[in-house]
Design brief:
Elements: E1 8-13, H1 16-26, E2 30-31, E3 40-45, E4 48-54, E5 73-78, H2 81-90, E6 96-97, E7 104-108, E8 114-119
Parallel strand pairs: 1-4, 5-8
Antiparallel strand pairs: 2-3, 3-4, 6-7, 7-8
Length: about 120
């Protein structure tokens, strides 16, 4: 087997409206116009997609509550880390700066899924 491309990540969410606000309005991901046979929404980022799939009782669990980055997470790159921090904090989202010294931080969506934002 030879894997040739990374296609998408599926993320479970319990409340689609809150998730769409976070991924679409806060993170600014572009929604894919697609009819689904289940509650959810897709976002496009270059050749990569994020699939939000509704599971009404979903709540992410953290295996390491002291360091968000030591939990399953998805990572995105931004061109201005300070701007991203300001947007998240002013919208009421918690930001934990990377303890590695990298230009990166971690946050969580409304269901507790961990998101890493790095400046590259």
């Amino acid at each position: 087997m030879k894997i040739t491309q990374y296609l998408h990540t599926a993320i479970l969410v319990s409340n689609l409206e809150k998730a769409e606000y976070f991924y679409g309005q806060i993170l600014g991901l572009a929604k894919v116009d697609r009819v689904l046979n289940y509650p959810g929404v897709w976002y496009q980022l270059g050749n990569y997609q994020i699939h939000l799939i509704v599971h009404p009782n979903f709540a992410a669990t953290l295996t390491n509550e002291e360091k968000l980055g030591r939990n399953p997470h998805i990572a995105f790159a931004v061109d201005n880390l300070n701007e991203a921090i300001k947007k998240l904090e002013s919208s009421g989202y918690f930001v934990e700066k990377s303890r590695s010294g990298r230009a990166a931080f971690f946050t969580q969506d409304s269901d507790g899924n961990v998101i890493e934002i790095s400046q590259v």
